[in-house]
Automatic annotation (TrEMBL):
This is Uncharacterized protein. The chain crosses the membrane at residues 102-120, 126-143. Keywords: Membrane, Transmembrane, Transmembrane helix. SUPFAM superfamilies: Phospholipase D/nuclease. It comes from the Bacteria.
Amino acid sequence: MYYNGANCDIYIGKGAGRKLLNDMRNAKKSIKIVSPFLSPFLISELINFKKRNLEVELITTDNIEDYYGKYEKNIHKLIIQNREIDKGAAEKREKWKDLVKILSYINFGLVATLSAIAYYLQDRKVAFGLIPIVVIFLIIRFYKTKVKNKRIYFY
């Protein structure tokens, strides 16, 4: 069908979804869909077409409640965003990861040493050795949170 000089097909009414699906399966290069309503099945089909290296364009206003696994929306697999990495932020994040790793090793060593000393001395004063362990543990948690929240991508 030609509409305003454009080569396109318009599907309306009963059986429109079946006709649309047949034409989509016969597509060789690209699929472009403009629809206010989409079914979860159609989204999964579009994902399969995307995996077959067909160009998929979708315009919709529908809130698609199609979840997979741990509440990951299937439609997010169709969205491609151009993102760039902030090299300075990525380097800082890697330094924090290395610091967390080093502090974890130090903390493990302190716990092992304190356990051995507490076993041999059997004195309550050894419990004061827990103070630096707790402080290092809190520092580790602080840096883990910073690593998790550090934005290295910008769109």
